[in-house]
Amino acid sequence: QVQLVQSGAEVKKPGASVKVSCKASGYSFTGYHMHWVRQAPGQGLEWMGRINPNSRDTNYAQKFQGRVTMTRDTSNSTAYMELSRLRSDDTAVYYCARGDDSSGYYYFWGQGTLVTVSS
Amino acid sequence: QSALTQPASVSGSPGQSITISCTGTSSDVGSYNLVSWYQQHPGKAPKLMMYEVSKWPSGISNRFSGSKSGNTASLTISGLQAEDEGDYYCCSYATGSTSLYVFGTGTKVTVL
């Protein structure tokens, strides 16, 4: 069965970087884009970007351009999302989600990783 | 792209029907039938409820139905049940320079 398992919670200071991992299993990792979506406490979902694990091509939301980097390691079917120059308003749960991009939906989601940015 | 606009809250009694709207623009909802809907319970990952405007994912009850007219998509829940309570988000593919996908602002559904 398809599973996306994310790394554990992180606490970071303002200005630091965080790297969240998402290990995929149960399907061909290179066959689907991996998207990243975040949710600040009490707020809605926000699309951050996606990576094509086959080509390494990425698309980022303009809001995160210059601060976010999405990468992948096909040898262990893992996608990564690194966010730099963290601010307090980056405190959020970060989700990876497998994108069925021809139909524009996310059926499989990771469990979420809480990133807390605090001095 | 700005977030798609949804009502903050919608409520109904068990057995009733409710509809959640999702209003975007001609750059997202209005141009593509790539609207999906997600249900989220506190502390949980979102769950896909509808895709391509009106298609059911595996395991989703046909009490849920989707439609679209112009720049507004809608999700209707018929025969409302207590388990339907939660937050609902729409999502659309989008053209434009700011974001490939855009989510709605979210709607809290309360079963009275």
Walk me through the topology.
The complex is a heterodimer of chains A (119) and B (112).
Chain A: E1 3-6, E2 10-12, E3 18-25, E4 33-39, E5 45-51, E6 58-60, E7 68-73, E8 78-83, E9 92-100, E10 105-109, E11 113-117
Parallel strand pairs in A: 2-11
Antiparallel strand pairs in A: 1-3, 3-8, 4-5, 4-9, 5-6, 7-8, 9-10, 9-11
Chain B: E1 9-12, E2 18-23, E3 35-40, E4 47-50, E5 64-69, E6 72-77, E7 86-93, E8 101-103, E9 107-111
Parallel strand pairs in B: 1-9
Antiparallel strand pairs in B: 2-6, 3-4, 3-7, 5-6, 7-8, 7-9
Describe this structure in words.
The complex is a heterodimer of chains A (119) and B (112). Chain A has 119 residues and is an all-beta fold. In chain A, 0% of the residues lie in helices and 53% in strands. Chain A has no helices and eleven strands. In chain A, the strands form two sheets. In chain A, strands 2, 4, 5, 6, 9, 10 and 11 form a seven-stranded mixed sheet that branches. A four-stranded antiparallel sheet of chain A has the order 1-3-8-7, with no helix packed on it. In chain A, a hairpin with a 5-residue loop joins strand 4 (33-39) and strand 5. Chain A is globular. By secondary structure, chain B is an all-beta fold. Chain B has no helices and nine strands. Chain B has strands at 9-12, 18-23, 35-40, 47-50, 64-69, 72-77, 86-93, 101-103, 107-111. The radius of gyration of chain B is 13 Å and the shape is globular. The model of chain B has no long low-confidence stretch (mean pLDDT 95). Classes of the chains: A mainly beta (119), B mainly beta (112). Chain A binds chain B through residues 35, 37, 44-47, 49-50, 59, 61-63, 95, 100, 103-107, 109-112, and chain B through 3, 32, 34-36, 38, 40, 45-46, 48, 51-52, 55, 57, 89, 91-93, 97-106.
